[in-house]
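pasting input
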Amino acid sequence: MSRKIEPGMAYDTSKLNKVFAFLSILLLITVFWVFLDDYLRPWKAVQIEALKIKREKIDGQLKAAEGAIDQQKMKDLEARLEKADEIIATRKKDIAVVNDEILSLNKLIKEETITSGQLNGDVAATTFDFESASAHGDMKHAEQVLPKLHDLKIKFVASKDRMKDYEARMKKEQKKLEDLNKEVIETENEIKKMTMSRDLLQKAKKTTDMNAIFVIRNSPMVDYLDPTLKIHQVVMENITDDRYFQQVAKVDRCTTCHTFIDQKGYEDQANPFKTHPKLDLMVGIDSPHPLKQYGCTTCHGGEGHRVNDFNAAEHRPQNEAQQKEWEAKYHWHPGHKVALPMMKLQHTESQCLKCHQGVEYIAQAPKLNEGRANIEKFGCNGCHKIEGWEHRRKPGPSLLKVAGKINKEFFKNWVWEPKSFNKHAKMPQFFMQSNNSKPEFVKKNIAEVNAIAEFIWSKSKDYQPFDRYRGGNAERGKNLIKEVGCMGCHGVEGYEEESKKVNAHAGPYLTGTGSKVDADWLVSWLKKPSHYQEDTIMPSFRLSDTEANDITSYLMSLKNKSFERLKFEPMNNEARDEILVDYLSAFDTEAGAKAKLAKMSDHERTMELGFRSVGKYGCYSCHNIDGFADRAPIGPELTKEGSKPISQFFFGIDHTIPHERDAWLKAHLVNPRRWDIGIDKLFKDLNRMPNFYMTEEEADSITLALLGQVSENIPMAGKKNLNQWEKMAADGLKTANKFNCIGCHKVDGFRGDILNMYEDINEGPPRLNDQGHRIQTDWFHYFLSNVYPIRPWLKVRMPSFNLSNEEKNSLVSYFQGISHVQTFEDNQSEVVWEPGERDAAKKLFNNLNCVSCHSTGFTNDPPSAPNLYQAKRRLRPAWIRKWLENPQAILEGTVMPSFWEGGESSEPDILGGDSQKQISALVKYIQEIGYDKLPNSK
Amino acid sequence: MRELINWIADPIRSFPIFTILFFLMLKHYRVVGTKKFAWIAFLLSIPTFFWFAADPNFFLIITTPDNIPISILIILITFLTWFALYQCAVNDARLEQGLTPMEGTPENREKVWTWPNLVYTELFAIIAGTVFLIVWAIIFKAPLEEPANPTWAPNPAKAPWYFLGLQEMLVYFDPWMAGVVLPGVIVVGLIAIPYIDTNPKGNGYYTFMERKMAMTFFLFGWLALWIYLIIVGTFLRGPNWTFYGPFEFWDLHKVVAAYNVNLSEFFWIKGLGRAMPKNLLLRESVGIILSLGYMFGLPPLIARTKWGMSIIEKTGKVRFYILIGLVLLMGSLPIKMFLRWLFSLKYIVALPEWELNL
């Protein structure tokens, strides 16, 4: 091999150079590549697309603006401008003179500005020189400087003076010029006014030009040139991200791609260019949640600070179809170990709960409200603690006197399978589930149920009904149930259609009642519910003996024959002892446990198992049972369920459920025992969460509500802080909710479930709109414990609730809080009349024929409107005024006529036809005739 | 087949196999160190690799951004080890024939200029390395994760790849041993090599024949106790640091039965059938005596063997005892590993009261 290598060289130099050249070029290419890789970001393409959309939009608007310009008028103006130009031309000489003057003044002003600026600096510097010298005691120097300072100050003042003179002269000359050009300027201004929106749009369009300047500004490596394609971000001071070791201000860069999310006019665009669909509630600058303050991920979740591409933000598809679409479009895949991925769109509402706490409902979040209503309906909060739900009662009825209400056989069959008695039962089922229906488990479950029954019966206090059933008319009873308002809280067999419409769940669905309780108990219960259970929310309807017996007659006729035939298997002592040994050997050997058991009598064993089983299944969480008052509820706390790490959810061996929080929750709600399937467990370790047999929709809505139970730490300033009124309303609603007031009354459009049953809304319980403004507080407080009929023509009755003073007060402040009114409004003790006003009022009262409806006390006709004599104590004068002005505005669909529609009086002869004066007079009249005493009061 | 490989890959089996293969390799280095052997091995490894990579679990684990350096490391270490053995084989054959080693031939002894021969080519290496790193950085995004969340730690929580050998040692030793003493000894031992190894042979040329002991000790420590443990730690340790075969899915819930017993418990309870003494030192006396015997009793015994005497003769007593001390410490790792696998031995000396477990 001929190597032409120089001495002392291992390689051929030219070959080395070639290698070097090759490597250098390779390095150069990779450097370009790395810059390009850094520069080409997916979000930039989105912004360019957005720019195009914006341009199109502006083009459209421009066309419209152009079309809006009146061409004829434009032509006229242009002709006028030409003429004006001609007029001006004649003044050419004068204008030239003025222009010269302005020019020379300009020069003077500029010159003086320089002089004055220099003097200003000199004065300041010399002042410092003088002051520092005198401060340090160098009086000699100070005295030297002082004359110079005075001299400079004088010069400065003179310069300022000259400046004022020049400026005044300038103004004068400019005015002169304007006068000379008057015709042109005026016409031009008019033209400008017409073309203004077009000109502005043209300017806006210019910002979307993709010209050379656009290219230069957006070139790589020149970020200091203020690129137009850039990351947009919102930094929120009041909302933080949990970075585990510290809370940092939340940063959302979503608007980098969702360019028009807060701008109107892009509703028709596809995502990400769409306008937010609820701009008036969210994101919009005038909405309660402006973008700048609340950002995006506060509600939507996701990684708001990440922008690179679609996947960076951790978007989450709503369903499988969308997932497929995204996979094809964006190569979508969930990120690795993302603590807070975006909420699926259908779950976004859950996040309202983060900031809106301490309230029963959130007006703008219907799905969340539904979920929370379902939590209440199924009583999840009985077994699971949820912060903010502590005020709620136990979901199930008290068992303190249960032996006086039902028999043991019923109890056992009911507990075994509640739905076999009542398919609307809210009581969930613990037994015969997917994890405990093996024969050996069933045998033990039967022993447990028997023991629970014996235990509860032994704990139950005696109860004797205070009244006897004397027989009644079932048909009348059935009608009464519908008429008096039972269905505001109960669904009732025989009224399936109505029950469905009302969808009440405060009380049980009344079916098979005759197979459950005895008639004496029922009569007593109906007449005075608190006799059986002191803390019941079931009110008294002040039923007469006949009425109570009629209703009882109907309810007792509702039988469940197939349930009555059920015979519950008797206690298997062997199974009982086996379970007990299991319990007793928890801290003891099996032999020790057996020895302990041997010492117990048969009865003691049953009681022991009953006690243990009530604890095991958590019966006490929903029902009051003697001896369990201090026990914590059985289920795990759900306050922070929405933040529980996905790794802490147990999916068992079920591979059909995606590993997502919402999927687990829903699957768990639909069948809580599914996680035990395929897992070998001992009897004592079986999952005990009962099955509610809820529908998919119900499970979905509860899932949504639970997803909102997050542990995020929102600073006080970022949260919704209730003001005085809101706090009063929120607290009052808790009471209104407890007693299901809103099951019957529609409060400012909210709930009033029973009204769905009525064809004529005026036949149902009164709607309470702006109620705080309507009623006198002292009357309301009195009325709540001394109910009397206000609208005697209504068949539905306001029941008498067993309210504490605290509860009455909270209801009072509930309406006060809604209406933002003072606690009391003055009633004039003595009405002061204007001259002639009283006669006018009386005349009006007659002419408008008020007594044709408000007949009570005036005529013998049956009334179809409330008693006016009692209006004084009940109603606030300010409200009566408003009511007379326009009743429909307060209560749409009311039968009260509007006599002053649109401010026009129908009685032009009285008080000069002045509607305000007429209304005042009538209000005074009602005050005057009103009783001071409250009805039924002593 | 895959099940078999999964089964073999468990350190209980793969470490002895690896060790046996290692010694076979050294024994037959003249066969291994041939180009023919290398070609055959290379050609065999290609289909094998593709067969391995066809498995989704294996493919996933080798292509994880964190693990790519280890894949590169395996290839480089394999090649460089072979290359050293190849050079040794060539030179040793020449030395046997009485020739100089390859590095000693006249044309290889010729001197050339540092510039450009060395500096220029170093520059090439720098540029090529930079290009490689840039391209790597572009293609494989940095495997960064979410901000550290103390309530949701990664599982498995793995040390950086170069510390995975140490982390693997934690399976067998207490942290103070695996995390402090052994790494310290490794560093001290590496520093001490030039002072202990006074054998002038092999200076400037590859040879195995003339430095058998030095090469064997070093390569065993390097390949079996460091590289092998890194590979195990990277590819075969999954969630909860449980062993997963190369084709096994990393099931978070996999459970492996492991209940380990201390030597003192073996001795007192299982052996003598009596309660453990209250006195701590008495309780652990067997382990303490064994450990002390291992560290201080064995060296004088070894010094009397033929092998020991020859080393003392060549290097002196001080060097001999330091060398034996280091070798014994190194040997303690495989010994403990075997004891764990064979007897589920937890600690030889178990003094948690003094935080002193061996």
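fyi The two ends of chain B are 38 Å apart (CA to CA).
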